[in-house]
Write a structure and sequence with these properties.
Helix content is 43%, strand content 13%. By secondary structure, it is of the alpha/beta class. The protein has one domain: P-loop containing nucleotide triphosphate hydrolases (Rossmann fold). The chain has a five-stranded parallel beta sheet with strand order 2-3-1-4-5, sandwiched between helices. The chain has a three-stranded antiparallel beta sheet with strand order 6-7-8, with no helix packed on it. Helix 2 packs antiparallel against helix 4, helix 3 packs across helix 7 and helix 10 packs parallel to helix 14. The radius of gyration is 19 Å and the shape is globular. 46% of the residues are buried. Bound molecules: zinc ion.
């Protein structure tokens, strides 16, 4: 069995910084958003987090050689299409009782290819656990249907107002094809996704009785070692090995992550710190919309205050530069 630690949750909730920390633990290997390895990685040849286009990255070259004897050029389009068969809009049918056994028997070859890929990643990295930050509930379902994977779920949640603020901002993504910007969404849309993705994640974990842990982003920022220790335990490792110093700094080495937040290109010492810009800059109307759309899910996660809460957003800050 290949152990997979799946980082779930809605985008801009801090999964990239969590993965960066986990990737410093030798037994774990953070691979970024593996759902996008075919489309963004191999077909579009976007950059790996090591800075090299994926097809030229030494790590991924070894992985594809180990898995398939090389890049599976002849199957790439089919692999990309099969990934699209696990869509968020298909979730209602994917979640029906028995769907785990019944869904798309003609995609058995795809699930076998996934199993081979995750096994090869672990082997090439010399790691016990593959960390996949794809986040999509639909990709989690695909992994559950994949033979030979032992899947555990770390579900990261963050105040939906902070998340909506992040999706509103115009941010540079040097790896994005459309003018190098990250996609933007309106607060009401972000809020609706926030609720439905988080609920879907919980439901999949519960109905499949998966090992599951919910991590609040704000707790992770306030005390990274206390919040991330249980994530290590979920992965089967001692919880006292979180590679973050008492002052919140973490030393990031070279990584090989597919897709994700531009933070993944960071190397060297960074400090995990608060960024409360949204509490000062986010309009009251937008906050009201987000609060309305995300009730009652946010209340279950402890985001109760109608007023801007103090804190949050993980902007890594370079130390000494
Ligand atoms: Zn790389």
């Amino acid at each position: 069995m290949t152990k997979v630690l799946y980082l779930a949750g809605w985008g801009r909730s801090g999964s990239t910084i969590l993965e960066a920390v986990l990737n410093q633990v030798p037994e774990l290997v953070g691979c970024g958003e593996l759902k996008f390895v075919w489309r963004r990685g191999l077909i579009e040849n976007r950059r790996c987090s090591c800075g090299t286009p994926l097809r030229e990255c030494g790590f991924w070259t070894r992985v594809f050689h180990e898995a398939y004897g090389g890049i599976p050029e002849a199957r790439l389009a089919a692999l990309d299409a099969a990934t699209g068969r696990y869509r968020t809009r298909h979730l209602p049918s994917l979640l029906l009782p028995g769907a785990r056994d019944r869904y798309a028997p003609e995609l058995a070859w795809y699930r076998d290819d996934l199993a081979t890929l995750y096994r090869a990643v672990a082997r090439v990295a010399g790691a016990q656990v593959v960390v996949d930050s794809s986040k999509f509930p639909s990709h989690l379902v695909a992994l559950l249907q994949t033979p030979g994977l032992d899947v555990r779920v770390a579900h990261i949640v963050r105040d939906p107002r902070a998340v909506a603020y992040s999706w509103q901002r115009d941010k540079i993504d040097p790896d994005a094809p459309d003018g190098g910007r990250m996609p933007r969404l309106l607060p009401g849309v972000t809020g609706a996704y926030w609720s439905s993705w988080n609920l879907a994640t919980e439901r999949i974990a519960r109905t499949n009785r998966l090992p599951y842990l919910r991590v609040r982003y704000e707790d992770m920022i306030a005390d990274p070692r206390a919040a991330i220790g249980p994530v290590l335990e979920l992965a089967g490792l001692p919880g006292d090995r979180v590679p973050v110093a008492a002052d919140g700094t973490v030393g990031l080495g070279v990584s090989h992550q597919v897709s994700g937040n531009p933070v993944r290109f960071s190397q060297g010492a960074i400090r995990i710190r608060d960024d409360d810009e949204w509490t000062r800059e986010m309009g009251a109307a937008a906050q009201v919309v987000v609060n309305a759309v995300t009730t009652p899910v946010r209340q279950r996660y402890g985001y109760r205050s109608a007023r801007p809460a103090p804190v949050l957003a993980a902007t890594p800050e370079r130390v000494g530069s």
